[in-house]
Structures are given as C-alpha cells and as structure tokens.
Amino acid sequence: MDTPPNDDLEASHFDTTISLKNLNWPVVGAILLIHLGACLAPFYFSWEGLICLVLLYCFTGCIGITLCYHRMVTHRGFRLNPVAKWIAHLAGALALQGKPLYWAMSHRVHHARSDQPGDPHSPRDGKWWAHLLWLIPNRGTQSYQVLAAKYIPDLIQDRCCVFFDKTYLFWTILLGAALFGFGGLTCFLWGFCLRVTLVWHMTWLINSATHIWGYRNYPTTDQSRNLWWVAWITFGEGWHNNHHAQPAAAYHGHRWWEIDATGWVISTCRILKLATKLKRPNHHRNKKKGLKGNFSPSHGTSSKGLTSPMGTSVHQSAKIH
Ligand SMILES: [Zn+2]
Ligand SMILES: [Zn+2]
C-alpha cells in the first residue's frame, strides 16, 4: 500500500515518473498484444471482419465511451432510461479503456486540474505522455480510494456503474471469445484487436491533440482546443475547448459546422424518451435572448466553473467571446 502525501494527492497519484519498477505490466502487455493483433489484421481481411469492426467501433466508441463513460457517467449531462443505461455501460466496458469508476475519476481530475500539476494527461508533460504513456505506471490503490471518495461519491453508489466496475473484464473476454468462435481469426483480429486499437487512439487523441492543436471558442484556463478532424473520428469529442468551457453540456458542437454525432444519438434518445434531463450549452439560451458571440481565437483567462471536480457546473461567464 502506498502512502500518498496529503499536500497534493492528485499530483501524487498521477505522478509522471516512469520506471521499470512502477510499470503496470498487465496494461503494458495488453496494449502491446492488441496493437500486434491490429498490425496482423490487414493480412486476414474479410468483409465479415470489416463489418464487425465498423459496428463495434460505433457501439463501443460512440455509445460506450463518448455517450456513456464521458457525457453521461462522468459529466452527468443527461440521464438514460434504465435498460438503455445498462446497454450503454456494456458498450463502455467493451471498449477496454478501464473500469468505469476509474475512468470517470481520472477524467474529473483532468477537468479539475487541466494542464496544471495533478492533471493525469497534460501535453505539458509530453505529447506521448498525454496520448498514451500516462496509462502505464502502477497507481496506488489507497490514493485511488481517497480520490474516489473526493471525485466520484455519486458514482460509487450507482448500482449499474459498480456492477460493470466489478465485471469489467468478463465482458471483454466474452466478446473476444464470441468473435473468435463465430467468425474465426479474421473477425477476432478486425472486430477485437484493430477495433480496440482504433477506439483507444481516437480517445487518446482527445487527451493529446486537442490540448495542442486547433482553435478556441472560449477563454478557458487550460490549453483545450477544437480540432475538426479529431471531432470527425471521435463522434464529436474533438470540440474539446467547447467541452472544457461547459463540461456538463450534453452537446459538444456549439456552432452549426461543429458536427457532433454523439449529440445526434443523444437527441434521438431524447425523441424516443430514452434520455431525459439534458443539459444544453449556454449559447442555446443566449441565442434565444438575442445574444451573439464573436468566435475569435483566444488564450486562457480565469474561469472558476471549469474546475468543478464533478464536471457538472456550467460556468455562466464562459461564453463564446
Ligand atoms: Zn481536456
Ligand atoms: Zn470531459
């Protein structure tokens, strides 16, 4: 058991040191093996494999990570009907990006400490650190429990979240076995290895690229950016500066050209009465009042509401300027 210093628990838990002694070897091994499988996939092409990849990319990437883990679980941007909620959590588990509670905790810390000491994955600690390397050190379980009590007290009471937290790996093993059993090696390599690798990198680009490149609609205190090509492959998550300005908003595209595919899915769920209590971006309300913003690029000024550990506050002054 580690004994984290109390002065800065976040910086201690998400320490940026990497050495052979503190590597999380199961994570390192899984990343290497699944990337190896992804490299082999082109040599075992089949149309069935490609269909598995596309369907599972959308299911685990859009429904699992962006809609469920990120916008619903972490930021509570809306609520889902119970059946839809369990299906969305299943999709999240199948993305193989860690247990939902840890995912949500580390992401709330990211919003609380964006590009400051304690941010789990700031490009200020290196582009590759932000993209991937932050995942591989062994983190302390004791410090995790303290951080969980601080950042996700709501989620550790959520039955669905806790269920998938406990059974997380089982679903991935089941899917891998099913793909191999029904579709052979080709479906396993395309539907599992290549698909997991692509969804990993699409998510990781949010942590790396959209804190480096792109334009800013809002003067947030971090380095978040809106990056169109990342938004296109991540179902709308690439409008990351919009998201940092208004973390709880269910919609990340705030201008008409900022295509937000996950937002379309959430709207469809709302029409079908599967999604309720949607939190909308401020500018929707501003438009009704006839207020218009000037979308010129800008660089960080103070914005208190962005540092809410729950990521549920919408900072009233973080308007497009
Ligand atoms: Zn960010
Ligand atoms: Zn977020």
Q: Main attributes?
A:
single chain, mainly alpha, 53% helix, globular, binds zinc ion
Structure, explained:
The protein has 321 residues and is an all-alpha fold. It has one domain. The protein is built from 12 helices and 2 strands; from the N terminus they run H-H-H-E-H-H-H-H-H-H-H-H-E-H. The chain has helices at 9-13, 25-40, 47-74, 82-94, 100-112, 127-131, 141-151, 159-207, 228-233, 240-245, 261-271, 282-288, and strands at 79-80, 275-276. The protein has a two-stranded antiparallel sheet with strand order 1-2. It is globular, with a radius of gyration of 19 Å. The relative contact order is 0.15. Residues 1-5 and 284-321 have low confidence and may be disordered. The structure holds zinc ion (2 copies). One zinc ion (ZN) binds at residues 110, 114, 211, 224, 240, 244.
